[in-house]
Write a structure and sequence with these properties.
Bound molecules: ligand DP6
Low-confidence stretches: none
Mean pLDDT: 96
Radius of gyration: 20 Å
Number of strands: 12
Strand content: 15-25%
Order of helices and strands: EEEEHEHHEEEHHHHEEHEE
Largest sheet: 8 strands, mixed
Length: 350
């Protein structure tokens, strides 16, 4: 192995989709079938350090460690990622990448660790390109390029680049939106939807029965795919309007409906499958009951798993957390939950 050329390090958070990315276009690399929008989970992040060495022809192209320990089960995904981005980053063949990644949340809690991990790795690679002057003729800025590269690792990762809501996929609602990378939702974000938080209620911390990548693939011959993609397009336009005007009730309706549509698509895939559990439904019922009784404006969303994300306004923190502790924690596995602010941009550490 040759000399070390450069070392960079980024912290990048996971994100939670409000309108879901579920299904990929039949052409291209990891292009979404419909636009999605997400909030960054600022307190749940991956920290990735990339060391770049000069490469001799006999060297292996990369070494991957998770918190300093080798993790062979992650290697095929990284290898695939590096192969796929080789077209965009021909310079990679001259270097060895030492990648170390670490999550500040437990693995297997259903938090999109691939979004945070590939987000951080995309940022590191884009930074190396920038610092070594390896990128020519790109029309993308640094964040777009990082998002573009992260997308190839995991679609949802491309939305982790911004403090403001991130939009990925072409939509008339957002100027400059693209299937290739996520953009920040510019313009006004209503104060009523600016300071929200997320409590992730861990219902199940095991491995998912069907991975997201496998789930996306089932949209290919799905009987309701076209209707779902069209609905997501409309929901995206509608939620952007709600975010701008502060229509919190409409925001809540769209977010909850999107979560249920995501799981409805799983239940109606061929073959069908279920990722939610009885306790997922019990938590949803309790949230609805609490909202009806108190008039508080909070809502749930779901990822591709059994865990429930409870989204609420920071001003309701005390009441919401009392409700979580008293009513919802009994439905969580070992009473586990994770809290996060919404927003926060990735941070360069080195
Ligand atoms: C349900 O980004 O994990 O979380 O692109 O195949 O890596 P790949 O899938 P992934 O899918 C995430 C799907 C989702 C919804 C969302 O984040 O929009």
């Amino acid at each position: 192995m040759g000399e070390k050329i450069i070392e960079v390090s980024f912290q990048c958070s996971s994100n939670i989709a409000l309108v879901k990315y579920w299904g990929k276009k039949p052409h291209g690399v990891q292009l979404p079938a419909n636009p999605s929008i997400s909030w960054n989970l600022g307190d749940l992040y991956a920290t990735t350090t990339l060391k770049v060495f000069q490469r001799d022809t006999s060297d292996t192209p990369f070494v991957f460690t998770l918190s300093g320990k080798s993790k062979p089960s992650f290697e095929p995904k990284i290898e695939q990622f590096l192969l796929k981005i080789a077209v965009d980053c021909p310079w990679l063949k001259n270097y060895i990448l030492h990648i170390d990644s670490e999550n500040n949340f437990p693995h297997g809690t259903g938090i999109a660790s691939s979004a945070a991990g590939f987000g951080a790795l995309g940022l590191c690679i884009a930074k190396v390109e920038e610092d070594l002057g390896l990128l020519q003729n790109s029309t993308m800025d640094f964040w777009q390029r990082s998002s573009y590269l992260s997308r190839i690792g995991s679609g949802s990762a491309c939305r982790s680049m911004y403090a403001a809501p991130a939009v990925w996929g072409e939509t008339l609602a957002v100027e400059g939106s693209s299937d290739l990378y996520a953009v920040e939702l510019g313009g006004e974000i209503h104060p009523l939807l600016t300071h929200w938080r997320d409590v992730v209620l861990i219902v199940d911390d095991g491995e998912k029965a069907v991975s997201s990548t496998a789930g996306h693939a089932l949209l290919k011959d799905h009987p309701y795919a076209e209707a779902r993609f069209a609905k997501a397009q409309l929901n995206l336009i509608d939620i952007v309007r709600a975010i701008r005007t502060g229509d919190v009730n409409r925001f809540i309706e769209i977010v909850e409906s999107e979560a249920l549509q995501l799981h409805a698509m799983m239940m109606t895939s061929v073959p069908y499958y279920l990722l939610i559990c009885p306790n997922t439904l019990a938590i949803i019922e309790k949230i609805w009951q609490y909202r009806a009784e108190t008039g508080m404006r909070l809502c749930f969303t779901l990822d591709a798993g059994a865990n429930v994300h409870l989204l609420y306004d920071k001003k309701d923190e005390t009441d919401t957390m009392n409700f979580v502790r008293k009513v919802l924690l009994p439905y969580c596995k070992n009473e586990q939950y994770l809290c996060s602010v919404i927003g926060l941009k990735p941070k360069q550490l080195r």
